Amino acid sequence: MVLEGQWHAAGAAASTKAKLHIIDKVHYSLELETGKVLSGTLSSLHIGDRLGNIARKITLEDASVFTTKENDAIDTLCKHNSKINTFIHTLESKLKWALMALVFSIFTMFAFFTWGVPWGSKYIAHALAEESNQIIAQHTLDFLDKILFKKTHRDNQSIF
């Protein structure tokens, strides 16, 4: 199996075209465009999680990085890849799952503010001593008077 991509030296922003050769599913050989060859065992590589179709990062032992957009080939290579990562990729890559997650998130927020906050407030209010409730109420009113509300001016005329 051969993967094409870019190689970045450790700590450098510049990249070089490279080909990652998988040898007997145990070893690898990374051939740089410059002719330099890096090699080692696949178990020593750190393969980043798949995130949609974004280029996958593979970190070598020397902290250099190989990036490739051949995600399906890497997934085939890494059958040991975690099931959670596969589940997240499925959610991210399918529009219906993304929309369902959006609807679920909106419903969760609605339920939290509609039922969760009132329930929690009631629970906390009943757990506090009466003196605490009075102090909180007084300070809240003082705060609102100082920060939010404006003093009203009434004419001497009656409303009625």
Question: How would you concisely characterize the structure shown here?
Answer:
The chain has 160 residues and is of the alpha+beta class. It is built from 4 helices and 7 strands.
CATH architecture descriptor text of the largest domain:
Roll
Q: Helix amount, in percent?
A: 40-55%
Q: What percent strand? A: 15-25%
- Describe the largest sheet: 7 strands, antiparallel
Overall pLDDT = 82
How many structural units, i.e. domains? 2
| Cα radius of gyration in angstroms | 30 Å
Reading off the top of the CATH hierarchy, the class of the largest domain is best stated as Mainly Beta
DSSP summary, beta strand count: 7
Series of secondary-structure elements, N-terminal to C-terminal: EEEEEEEHHHH
In the sheet with the most strands, the strands line up as 4-3-2-1-7-6-5
- Low-pLDDT stretches are none
- The span between the termini is 90 Å
Shape by Cα distribution: elongated
CATH topology of the largest domain: PH-domain like
Number of helices: 4
Please identify the structural class as seen in this structure.
alpha+beta
Write up what this structure looks like:
The chain is of the alpha+beta class. It has two domains: 2-82, PH-domain like; 95-147, no CATH class. The chain is 43% helix and 23% strand. It has helices at 71-77, 83-93, 95-127, 130-147, and strands spanning 2-8, 15-23, 27-32, 37-41, 46-47, 56-59, 65-68. The protein has a seven-stranded antiparallel beta sheet with strand order 4-3-2-1-7-6-5. Strand 2 and strand 3 (27-32) form a beta hairpin. It starts with a strand and ends in a 13-residue tail after the last helix.
